[in-house]
Every structure is written in C-alpha cells, then in structure tokens.
Amino acid sequence: MDAKDFIIARIDDLSKRTKGLSFRYAYDTKTDFHIVEVTPEEICSGSEEYIKLECDIWAAFYSLFPKEDLLISDKCRTNDMSNIIYEKHSDAVNDSSNRRDFIFENNNCPAAYSLAL
User: Fold this and answer.
1) Residue pLDDT, tens place only, 24-67
2) How does DSSP assign 4-73, residue by residue?
C-alpha cells in the first residue's frame, strides 16, 4: 500500500465513523504534500472522537511513510486543491442511499486514481 492508497482508505474509514463531514484529497506537486480538507470545521474541532481518529491517522501515516508529508485541515484558500484525487461525503445520518463518492483522474499527478466503469 502506498501513501495515496493509505489516505483514501483512511478517508473511507473516517466517512463511515463520522457523520456530516466532507473530505477532499489532493496532491500538491509543488510542495509534495498530500492535502486532505475536511469540512465543516465546526464538526471536526468539536468532536473528541474525530480529533482522536485524526491523530491516529497522523501517527500511522508518519510511521509508514516517514519521507512523505500530510496536511489535514479545514477548507483553506492557501491549499492547492487543483489536483483533486479523491472526494468523499459522509452521510448526515446513518443512511447510505444518497452517498456520493468521487475518484478523479488527473494526468498531472503521478498517482492519480481513475474510476473503472
């Protein structure tokens, strides 16, 4: 498993374990950072459970990929999200009937993911 697969798997896990959050994952080629934006910020910062889950992701990521960089933040205009790799929206309630998941293909990213139809 590479860093991108790890991040996508953790986003999927977070999405199942939390409600009402949206995740956008991009890779910034200029800074070589994996960026995950999580919104809305009010839910993230107000949830002890979410904060612990995020800390566990950080610890596991840096243990497995010590030469990679990961930024998990709320939506920020300074994040370069032009290279979206993956996007996931957790349900507001435990109902997956209207779940929307997206995998983007971006030829500017060496590890872009595409959805097989």
Assistant:
1) 999 998 889 999 999 888 777 777 888 899 999 999 999 999 99
2) HHHHHHHHHHHHHHSSS-EEEEEEETTTTEEEEEEE-HHHHHT-HHHHHHHHHHHHHHHHH-TT-EEEEE
Residues belonging to the chain:
117
Question: What CATH code would you report for 3-103?
Answer: 3.30.300
Using the structure block, give the residue that is written with the tokens 């960026």: 35
What pLDDT does residue 45 have? 75
What tokens were used for 70? 């990961």
Query: What are the extents of the domains in the chain?
Result: 3-103
Angstrom CA distances, 58 to 3, 54, 69, 107, stand at: 12, 6, 10, 27
Q: Which amino acid, residue 10?
A: R
Residues 6+ positions from 83 with CB-CB distance below 8 Å: 26, 27, 28, 29, 106, 108, 109
